[in-house]
Amino acid sequence: MGPGRKKHVWARAAALCLLLVLVIAASALLFSGDDALVPPDASSASERFDEDYREYFSSYYDSSESSGAFSCELPRVRADGLTLELTPRPEGEAMTLAGLYEACAPSIVAITCTVDDGAKYVWGSGIIMTGDGYILTNAHVLEGAESCTVTLWDDREYPASLVGADSPSDLGIIKIDAVGLSAAQFCAGGVTVGEQAAAIGNPLGPELRGTMTDGIISALSRDITYTNHPMTLIQTNVAINNGSSGGALFNMYGQVVGVTSMKLVSVYAGSSIEGLSFAIPVDTVKEVSDALFADGKVLGRPALGITVGAIPLAAAEHYGIPAGLYVSAVSPGSDAEAQGVQPGDILVSVDGEQVSEVSQLSEIIDAKEVGGYVTLELYRYGGDMAYLNVTLMETADLY
Length: 399
Prior knowledge:
Blueprint lengths: L5 E2 L1 H9 L2 E2 L7 E2 L11 H5 L1 E2 L3 H8 L25 E2 L9 H8 L3 E8 L4 E9 L5 E4 L1 H4 L4 E5 L5 E3 L1 E6 L4 E5 L9 E3 L8 E6 L9 E16 L2 E8 L11 E3 L4 E12 L4 E11 H14 L6 E2 L2 E5 L2 H7 L5 E6 L4 H5 L6 E5 L2 E2 L3 H9 L6 E7 L5 E7 L1 E2 H4 L1
Parallel strand pairs: 5-13, 13-18
Antiparallel strand pairs: 1-4, 2-18, 3-7, 6-7, 6-9, 7-8, 8-12, 9-10, 11-12, 14-15, 14-17, 15-16, 16-19, 17-18, 18-19, 20-27, 21-22, 22-23, 23-24, 23-25, 25-26
C-alpha cells in the first residue's frame, strides 16, 4: 500500500473487532513453495487507512471471501435414485470412546487432491455413505481439484469421480469403484448442548490419518458466514485441524451428527483459536446430499451474485461513506455484472430496506425466487448514487 497513509487510533480498534474471523474452513492444507493458506495480513490492512477507501477494503477483505463458481476437473458420475438414509438414535447404553473408534474409524477415509497442475496437494477427510463407494466430504476439499485419491482404512487407494458439490453449504460427494465398504450411520435426531461427541479425521495429512478427538457439543444453530454464504452450524470444542475437513462428528452411539468443516482463527494474531470448531448438521447434510444425488447440484436457491462485507463504523466515519455493505467482488456471468454492479460499490439498500449486515441481505434474497429481481441502491466512489434492478440467478450457476 502507498506511503501516503496516515495512522489512526480507531483503525486499530477496527482491527480488534476483526480479531476472530473465519478465514478458512479448517481443512484444505496446500503444500507448495509459498505460504499457502496464510491468513490475510490484518495488521497492514487495519492499522492504516488509504486515501482511497477502495484500496483499504481490497486489503481488508483480501482472500477471506470468494465469488467464483465451484471448479473441479474430476470426471463426473451420476447417482440417480440414491438418497441419504437417516437412522433414529438407538436406545440403551452409549459407547465408550474406544468402542466408538473401533466401530467407526473404518468409515472415515483420507482424500488427497492435486491442484495447480500437480504443484500442490490438498488433504481432506471423507465419510463413507454407502458400501459401494459414495463418499461425503467438504466442497472446499474438492475445489480446483484435477485429481483425487481416496485412501481407505486398510490402506487401499482408489481414484475418485465427482457426483456433485455445493459451495454454499460446503458439501460434496465423490465416488470410488469399490464394494463392501464400511458405511457410516447418519443420525435422524439432533444433538443437545453438553452431550459428548467425538471426531475422526485426518489432521495435517496422511501421517496422522485416523485421528480421533473428543469433547462436547458447545452450542447449536451458530450462524456463520463463509464465502458470503450464511451457514447454520453446530459448535463444538472437539479439536480439528487442517486436513480434518469432511470428517465426521459422531455422537456416542457411533452415528454421524455433523461434518467437521471449520474452525476460528485470529487474523490479527495469525493463529488458531482452540476449543472453537464447527460442523455441518445432519439435517443440512441430508437436504444437500439428496439434491447432489439427484442433480449433481442444489437447485432453486436465488443468488444476487455479489460478494459483500460489512463496513466498520470507524472506516465509514473516516471516509464519510455510508455504513452499508462493501462490494468486494461480482460473480462473472451474473446479472449483477450485466447491470453494472462494480467492486468498490457500497450497497446501501435493497428494495428500499437499509442493509448494513450480510445477514440482512441474505434474509431479503432468501425470501425471493430464482428469476425474481431486486432493486439495489448503490453508493459509488466520488459520491454518486446508482439504482439498479438485478435479476436473481441460480446459486449453483454462480458458486
